[in-house]
Each structure stands twice: as C-alpha cells, then as structure tokens.
C-alpha cells in the first residue's frame, strides 16, 4: 500500500510539473547548474567518515562538552555561528516536517493535497492558496513559546559571542526569544514579513494576522495589482533569500560552529557546516549524528534532545542559572497562569487553620533556635575547658620538678574527692584526655 501511495504522489508531482516551464530551470539549479548552486550542492554531498578516537585534536583539548565549554570560557570563541533546524522547536509543540507519524507532512492529509509538499509549492499556491492559510492558522507566531534552546542562542548574542544564527525554521521563535532580526539568517524565510507574490509590495502585518486568524486569503493592497499575498516563506519553486547567500561565507571566519536540531539533508543549508575551517571546532547538539558532523578532529557530538544539550553546555560554561532566567522571561503570562492554577488546586483554609499553621511554624522556629542555642553553649563550654587545660599544661611545664609533682598530687586528690552515685571515683572535667601523663601517675 505504501508503495502505491508513493507512486501516486509521484504521479501528481509529474502532472503538476509538466505544465510549468519554470520547473526545468529549477531542476537545473537543483542538479548543480550555476556556479553558486553547484558549490553548495557539492559541499553538502562530501563523503566523510567518523574520526577515530585515537586521532588527536587540533584546537580543543579533547572532543568533549567540557573542552568546548573551556574553549568558550577562555575567550577563544568570540565569533560563534549557530545553525538551527526544526528539531529545536519540537519541544515547543511545533512538529517538524519529515517525521513519519508526527511530522508536518504526515498530518496534511486532511487538506486533500495531491502530495504533502504541495502546501509549500508556489505553483499549487497560485491555484489554491486555501490549504496554506489553513496551515498558517496553526503555525502563525504567537501561539508557541520559544524553547530554552532558542534562549541559548539569544544568550550567546547577549554575551557578544554570536556572529550569526542561520535557521531553517519559519516559526520566528528565535525572534521571540529576544534575538534581533539582523542577527538571524532565515534561510527558508519566515512569517516575519509578507508581500504580494506578483509585484512584491509589502503587506501590513496586522492585516496578515487578521487573515490568518480568519483563514481568509489576502490580496495585494496596491491599486494596480490584485495578486495573492503570502508570508515571505520560501516555497518550492522560489529562490532562497538574498541574505542567505550574502552571509553564507561567515562560517569560514567563525571560531566555533554549533549545529542544532537538523538532519542536514536540505541543501544548500546542509553545506554550511562544511564551510568552517578545518581547525574550527564544530558542535552537534542533536538526537543523532547527521551529515559530516563527527568527521573532523575537533567535532564534538552531544546526542540527545536539544534542550538537554544546551542545558549541559550552559552549565559547563557557568551560565545555566542565567539561561533559565532568560527563558522564564519568554512566558511571564504563562508563569502567572500556572501559579494561579496551582493556587486554585489547593483547598481554601479557614482562619483557625491558618492560625494553627502559623503557631506550628513559630513553635518549630523556637525549637530550632533553642537547639542552636544549646549547641552553641555546649561548644563554648568545651572550648573554654580546652583553653584552660592548655594554659594549665603550659604553666605546669614551667614549674620546677617538685612543684610539678605537687600539682600532680593535688590534681589526683581532687579527682578522687568526687564520686558517682555508687561511690566509685570518677574523672573530673574530662581532664584525663588533656593530661594523659597526669592521669597515668594518679593511678599509682
């Protein structure tokens, strides 16, 4: 069944493409025609193998998270490039595109598309924009809170360490985490801006928000055009934004590269990590090893969830508390709502119950203070005894031999003058452990 479905989708694609002459040009670009395109395509397809553990590093002390943190703490990472994929947003509730059961494409069947990717096909959009706006209604910014991974990228910028953040995501969560737009290269566009697909006239953000909420299709506001409007998300059949190509050389001058939450399977984005210099440490924070990450001597793989990985790295850098505080600020209203919900769940207490709790609390505090006071008195008494004992020892050492003997006999008599309840002699003041030589003589 799955084979038939796959073929059906392929036939739909072929039918859709046959009547579109521009497809031939796009096909040529994807196969590497054109200087810029082929360069990225070739770099993304480089064959690689995992580095052997015995091979020494060039820049880092070792291929470990702790070594990366030390590299940052020591001030060697002043120009960090970050490359984000959909995996950094999944914990925010936004599905990725290609997961078999939970991915975005797997959940588009209800839109009656000829194939899932058609929702992002510019040719299909021209003929039927409604499916895209049904999807935009669910993905539009404002519905999802940035993850702590988004806040980590913002923290790098706050510390003056971020050179640029490249992202494949269209959800704008980097922006909502506090990262300025000029620090982000949205390789596949985003919901941040919108315009007419014909004359490119910008479209007001408030009108776009209204259209998305109402699931209606906006049209150009220009008097001479009635073209369809869409967010500046890169659809199949459209060029990547110019900002991507203008900034694609930045990994070459970076001193640290951090790749997070991406399969590195979509080009030309997938070729960015390969543009880093050989001696530049590259860190992959991802569920699994991808691309050529791990093939160089200074590649460090932190496998697991992105949120867990950035917490570990931030902790090793000494930033974890600051990172958590920054992330908490991304949802102050939510924090208040959660506090109110917790308060509602607790039963309302009567005045008598509140007074009883207060008395119990005060009683515990008094008992604790008394225990502390007794402990202090006991320590002070022992301290004074030891001090007097040490002073007595010093004075005894200074006496002539006969005087010392007399002092010893006097001490022994004093000790024997005190008895327990059964008239047995006892030691006075615990002095035997201070004057062991005196205690030995008194037993003769």
UniProtKB/TrEMBL annotation:
Zn(2+) binds at residues 196, 199, 220, 225. The active site is at 188 (proton acceptor). Pfam families: SIR2 (PF02146). It comes from the Eukaryota. Residues 1-15 have a biased composition (Basic residues). Residues 21-34, 340-352 have a biased composition (Basic and acidic residues). Its cofactor is Zn(2+). InterPro entries: DHS-like_NAD/FAD-binding_dom, NAD-dep_sirtuin_deacylases, Sirtuin, Sirtuin_cat_small_dom_sf, Ssirtuin_cat_dom. One of its GO terms (cellular component) is nucleus. Residues 46-60, 416-425 have a biased composition (Polar residues). Keywords: Metal-binding, NAD, Transferase, Zinc. Residues 58-320 form the Deacetylase sirtuin-type domain. Residues 1-60, 334-354, 393-429 are annotated as: Disordered. GO terms for molecular function: histone deacetylase activity, NAD-dependent; metal ion binding; NAD+ binding. Belongs to the sirtuin family. Class I subfamily. This is NAD-dependent deacetylase sirtuin-2. It comes from Polyplosphaeria fusca. The lineage of its organism: Eukaryota, Fungi, Dikarya, Ascomycota, Pezizomycotina.
